[in-house]
């Protein structure tokens, strides 16, 4: 697997954990507008070196989540805004253009300093 994006959670909005109860994780880069930041896990933005894709993996802390669906603007939102909405329901079609879906149990707590990483399968030389 090739890492295409890796970051660290630096702030947690006052209502960010509420979304976890709805099986969602919402991220945004540092510098988000205050009304948006309240609902997000804020991270130090980094470069994106590829596209999110089905069959890839999201890692949050030490837990790996297979990616089952990627909305049509999810990679662009991640690249430009550090924003993505992750749904922990394993759907194979993205609910919204900016969402991705993964399989696995929704985390109950995401502490400050947690690592968030997206990886995709590498291309093999033949």
UniProtKB/TrEMBL annotation:
Modified residue annotations for Phosphohistidine: 43
Q: Which organism is it from?
A: Serratia aquatilis
Q: Which UniProt keywords apply?
A: Transferase
Query: Which InterPro entries does its entry note?
Result: PTS_IIA_glucitol/sorbitol-sp (IPR004716), PTS_IIA_glucitol/sorbitol_sf (IPR036665)
Per the UniProt record, which EC number(s) apply here? 2.7.1.198
Q: What is this protein called?
A: PTS glucitol/sorbitol transporter subunit IIA
Q: Which Pfam families match?
A: PTSIIA_gutA
Q: For this protein, what is any one GO molecular function term?
A: transferase activity
Q: Quick one: which gene encodes this?
A: srlB
Task: Tell me the superkingdom of the source.
Answer: Bacteria
């Amino acid at each position: 697997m090739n890492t295409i994006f890796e970051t660290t959670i630096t702030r947690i909005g006052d209502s960010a954990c509420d979304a976890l109860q709805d099986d969602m994780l919402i991220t945004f880069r540092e510098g988000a507008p205050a009304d948006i930041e309240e609902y997000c896990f804020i991270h130090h933005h980094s470069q994106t070196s590829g596209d999110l894709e089905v069959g890839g993996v999201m890692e949050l802390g030490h837990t790996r989540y297979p990616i089952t669906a990627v909305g049509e603007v999810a990679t662009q939102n991640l690249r430009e805004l550090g924003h993505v909405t992750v749904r922990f329901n394993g759907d194979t079609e993205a609910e919204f253009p900016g969402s991705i879906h993964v399989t696995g149990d929704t985390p109950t707590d995401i502490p400050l300093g947690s690592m968030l990483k997206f990886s995709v399968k590498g291309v093999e030389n033949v």
